[in-house]
Model the fold of this input.
Amino acid sequence: MTALSPGLKGVDLLAEIERLKRERNAVILAHYYQKPEIQDLADFVGDSLDLSRKAAETDADVIAFCGVRFMAETAKILSPQKTVILPDMDAGCSLEDSCPPDQFAAFRAAHPDHIALTYINCSAAVKALSDIIVTSSSAHIILDQIPKDQKIIFGPDRHLGGYLQRKLGREMLLWPGICIVHQAFSETELLKLKAEHPGAPVAAHPECPPHIVDHADMVGSTRAILDFALESDADTILVATEPHIIHQMQKAAPDKTFIGVPGGDGNCNCNMCPYMALNTLEKLYVALRDLEPRIELSPEIMGRARVPLERMLEMASSTVGKGDVGKPILPIVDHPEEIDQAISGD
Done:
C-alpha cells in the first residue's frame, strides 16, 4: 500500500472509504488493471465501458472511477447528471496521449473521404471528432457492416487496427498510437514460458504487437481474456495483458495457475500500467472526501461524443446478425441496460 501522507496517519482508509461512500451515495468502480486492494473494495470490477454502464444503472450520485482519465470521461458521458471523480487526474493513457484532438482533427481534414473508427481508449474530445467508437470486442462486428469501398481511419491503437486488418483483410489508415504496456511484452520471454509450460495456452489482448499476438491461442478484450481463462480446461494459462487482471482469475479459479507474460528481459515491471498504478486507497479516500479531482466536460463535447458511442451501440447491439441492427439509443443514459455485455470490452 502507498505510504500515507502525514495528515492521514492513523486513518483507517477502508472504513473511511466505506463511510464516505455511504454519505456521498457513491459507487466505486475498479478496472481490471487496478491493484488488488482497490479491486477488492470496489462495487464493480470490469472493463471500461461495462463499468460505465453499470454505474449508469445505479441511483448513485457520485461515481468514483479507479481507472484512467478516458474511462472516467466515458462514465461522465453516459451519466452526465452524476458527479464523476478520478483519484488521480494524472492517470492518463499512452493511447490517449498519442492522439491529441487538434492533430486528429487535422488528420481527418486531410482525408475527407475517410470515416473515423476510433477505439474507446481516447479522450472525449477525440470521441467527439469520430464517426463510430469501437471496443476491442465490437470492432469486428462494426467493420463487417461498413461497405468495403468505404475508406476508414482507425485510431489511436495501430496494433488493434493492424490485428483487425490481418483478420478481416480490410485496409485502413492507422493512427500510429500504441499502449506502452502491451507494446512492452517480450517475445523472447513468452517463448521461454511456452517452453517451460508446454501445452499452456496463451491469451493476449489485441493491443499487443504482432510478434505477441501471433503466438496466442486466444486474442480478445480484458473481459474475454478473463472468460477464456476461467472456461479453459488448461491448468496453466499464460496471460499477455496487464497482470493485475490475474487477481480476478485467481479469485475465481484458485486451482489454476496464471502466469503473466513479462516485459523486457523478464526482470522489469514494464508489463504493469504506470497510469493505473497512480490510483491508491489514500487518493480514493481524499477524492471521496473532497469530491475532487472531478471530471468536467462541456455539454457540447459530451453531446458530440455521445453520437459515435450511440452508433457503436446501434451497430453492435444484440440484434446484429438477425437482420435488424436496431435504432439509436437516445439519450444513451436512459437505456444503459441495453448495452450488450459482449461489446463492452476494452
